[in-house]
Amino acid sequence: MKPSFRRKARACALQVLYSWEISHNNIKESAIYFLKEKNKKNIDIVYFYELIIGITYDCKNIDNLMKPYLFRSLKELGHIERAILRISFYELHKRNDIPYKVSINEGIELAKLFGSEDSHKFINGVLDKAVFKMGYNKKVVIT
After folding, report:
1. Quick one: pLDDT at residue 3?
2. Does residue 143 lie in a domain region?
3. Which one of 18, 70, 96, 134 counts the least CB within 10 Å of its CB?
């Protein structure tokens, strides 16, 4: 699967997670509805579903992972920034096959596309601090 397919999966997952948080609708129904409107040919659908199901299922744990690296409460974050951080922390915590630098970069790129003017700087700062303090930058992946 091409990396760009996974990037599109993250972008789609972000939009569905945003919608889910605002509407409190069923995440699977939201995903199906969202994908009806998209060209699914260039999206890693399996990864898209992994993200939305994994994040919504383990949302409290992911949020707890984030809290020590935020200088404000989760409730004070914008919905987009919170969703981006959830995707990035999910990848850092659950996907050892994805290099931490990729997770950080993808979070920054999502913030540039969907976030407010300076949200990419905020996302970068939070993720850099988390990677350093949690020791992800020293992680060795054995294949």
Report:
1. 60
2. no
3. 96
Angle at 66 between CA 141 and CA 27, to 5 degrees: 90
Count Cβ neighbours within 10 Å for each residue of 77-116 and write b for 16 or more, e otherwise: beebbbbbbbbbbbbbbbbeebebebbbebbbbbbeebbe
pTM: 0.89
**Domain count along the chain:** 1
Provide the domain limits for residue 15. 3-138
pLDDT in tens, 62-92: 999 999 999 889 999 999 999 999 999 999 9
Query: Could you identify the residue written with the tokens 């091409």?
Result: 2
Eight-class DSSP state of 75: G
Separation of alpha carbons 42 and 61, rounded Å: 31
The Cα–Cα gap between 69 and 26 comes to 29
pLDDT in tens, 7-53: 999 999 999 999 898 888 888 878 887 887 766 778 899 999 999 99
Instruction: Give the other-Cβ count within 10 Å of 21's Cβ.
Output: 17
